[in-house]
Please model this.
Amino acid sequence: MAKPPAPPPITRALLAQVLTPVMLVTIDSREQKALIAEIQTNRGVATWSSVDDITLSFRNGVILATRGFGADLMAADVPGISPRRDGQAHVRVHTLLNGEDQAVQTTYACTFRTVGRETIDVVELAYQATHVIESCTADGMRFANDYWISDDESLRKSRQWISPDVGFLTIEDVRQ
Model:
C-alpha cells in the first residue's frame, strides 16, 4: 500500500492564499503540522480548530485545553506569561483523564525565567521577541515551556507541554 503524498510545506506564499487568520501547530514528537483557525471566543478564552476538528483553547496564547489528540489536556489553570515575571514562582494545575476516564489533577511548582531578546523565524519571517522559559516539576515529572513574546506582549511563538502521551506542541502565530 502506497503512502499518501506529503502535504506541501507551509510557506508565506501558501499562507497568502488563506483568507482567515491562522496559526501553525506542530506536534513535536511526530513532526506533524496543521493550520488552525479561531472558531470562537468566550470570556477571554479563544478556541481554535484544525480542519479535522482538533481544537486548542488559549488565554493570551497559553494553552488551557486540547481536544482530539487522544491524551488531551482537559483543563489547565495557568498564570499569564510576561517578561516582567522573571524569577517568580507560581503553580500550574493540569487535568488529564486516566485510563478509566477519571479526571486526575496534577499541581506543578513552576518558575519563570526571562532569557532575553532573540530573533526567531516564523514561516520565512524574522521577528524580535523576548524568550521566557517556564520550568515546572511535580511527582518526578519535569517540563519546560518556551514562550517568545513580542513587544505588544502577545505570543509570537511558543512550545508548550500537553501531556505525557502528546508531549509538546509548538504554536506559531503566522499572522503578520
